[in-house]
Amino acid sequence: MTDKVLIVLQENSGRVPLPENVSPDLELLIFNVIDSLAETFEDLKSSLQAAGKYKFVVLLTDAAC
C-alpha cells in the first residue's frame, strides 16, 4: 500500500461563471458536462482507493457552493 493521499476539492453544483454572451443552450451543455465529470470522478476515486493507489481520500466538498 502506498502512502499517497488524494484530496478532492469539489464544487457541487456544476455551475461556473461563464461569459455573458454564452447562449443558454451552450451554458446548459457546459454545466451538464461538468456535472457528468464530477460524478465520473467520484466513481474513479473510489476505484483508485480500492485498488490501493491511495492510503487516504480526503473529501473537501462544500455543499453550500
Describe the structure.
With 65 residues, the protein is an alpha+beta fold. The protein has one domain (5-61). Helix content is 42%, strand content 12%. The protein contains one helix and two strands; from the N terminus they run βαβ. The protein has a two-stranded parallel sheet with strand order 1-2. It is elongated, with a radius of gyration of 15 Å. The model has no long low-confidence stretch (mean pLDDT 78).
What is the count of distinct domains? 1
Strand order of the largest sheet: 1-2
Would you list the SSEs in sequence order as H and E?
A: EHE
On the 0 to 100 scale, the average pLDDT is 78
| Major sheet description | 2 strands, parallel
Derived from helix and strand composition plus strand pairing, the structural class reads alpha+beta
Number of strand segments: 2
Strand content: 5-15%
Query: What separation lies between the terminal Cα atoms?
Result: 34 Å
List keywords for this structure.
1 helix; alpha+beta; two-stranded parallel ribbon; 42% helix; 2 strands; 65 residues
Element layout with pairings:
Blueprint lengths: L4 E4 L15 H27 L5 E4 L6
Give a quick precis of the structure.
The chain has 65 residues and is α+β, with helices and mostly antiparallel strands. The chain is built from 1 helix and 2 strands. 0% of the residues are buried.
